[in-house]
């Protein structure tokens, strides 16, 4: 497994041993970061159930201002720290070795907010998906124009709403499904109808400037690879 793009492009990422941490495939990472390409530079990224840290690492390599990576297992958290050190990205990262529910509560109490939140719970613990999304929907961790994505098995359904979060799209990647959420009052019912919005949900300043200068028909949205 390697970093796909950015300052650490092509560098190896160590993965923890065992089945509880499932490294995100290059195809999924590439597709998600294509969707988020305008969102990542300068963003605050929260990587929950971080595993190897590959998602937070990719965000930092692509210019994220800060990444918080949460992983309960000590051996996996140690791997994340080694990866960050080896890639020279540690100064912009925080690794929390603790339960995701505890970390989410603590970050919320501190008033932390994030532009992109990614959750990758272990498939072997099916009962964790609903509770963790219910908890996320009770927090103020997601910024007004931010996006939250949770990865599940392809067959798994997730609710259209959790507290202050609403689903606005899904995408299947092989045996996985990515569910995209945003704050309920952050956009109109059709995400692609908003000027200056990327597919991921956050504002695209470049597109906003373009829409102000050109007719709406002249501004095209980002297309996935």
* Contiguous helical run count: 6
End-to-end separation in angstroms reads 20 Å
Multimeric state: single chain
How many beta-strand segments?
8
Say which CATH homologous superfamily is assigned: Vaccinia Virus protein VP39
Strand order of the largest sheet: 3-2-1-4-5-8-7-6
Number of domains: 1
- The radius of gyration over CA amounts to 17 Å
- Mean of all residue-level pLDDT scores: 85
CATH topology: Rossmann fold
> Given the C-alpha coordinates, what overall shape results?
globular
Helix content: 25-40%
Question: Which residue ranges are poorly predicted, with pLDDT under 50 across at least 5 consecutive positions?
Answer: 189-199, 203-225
CATH architecture annotation: 3-Layer(aba) Sandwich
Largest sheet: 8 strands, mixed
CATH C-level label: Alpha Beta
Estimated structural class: alpha/beta
Q: Note the beta-strand portion.
A: 15-25%
Sequence of secondary-structure elements: HEHEHEHEHEEEEH
């Amino acid at each position: 497994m390697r970093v796909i793009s950015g300052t650490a492009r092509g560098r190896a990422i160590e993965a923890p041993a065992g089945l509880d941490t499932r490294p995100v495939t290059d195809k999924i990472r590439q597709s998600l970061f294509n969707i988020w390409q305008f969102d990542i530079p300068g963003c605050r990224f929260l990587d929950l159930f971080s595993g190897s840290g590959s998602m937070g690492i990719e965000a930092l390599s692509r210019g994220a201002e800060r990444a918080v990576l949460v992983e309960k297992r000590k051996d996996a958290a140690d791997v994340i720290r080694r990866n960050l050190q080896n890639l020279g990205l540690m100064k912009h990262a925080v690794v929390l070795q603790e339960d995701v529910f505890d970390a989410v509560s603590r970050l919320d109490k501190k008033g932390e907010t994030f532009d992109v939140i990614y959750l990758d719970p272990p498939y072997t613990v099916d009962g964790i998906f609903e509770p963790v999304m219910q908890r996320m929907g009770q927090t103020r961790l997601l910024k007004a124009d931010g996006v939250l994505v949770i990865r599940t098995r392809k067959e798994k359904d997730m609710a259209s709403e959790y507290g202050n979060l609403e689903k606005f799209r899904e995408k299947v990647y092989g045996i996985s499904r990515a569910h995209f959420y945003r704050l309920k009052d952050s956009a109109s019912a059709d995400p692609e109808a908003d000027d200056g919005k990327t597919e991921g949900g956050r504002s695209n300043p470049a597109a906003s400037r373009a829409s102000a200068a050109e007719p709406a028909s002249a501004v095209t949205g980002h297309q996935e690879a």
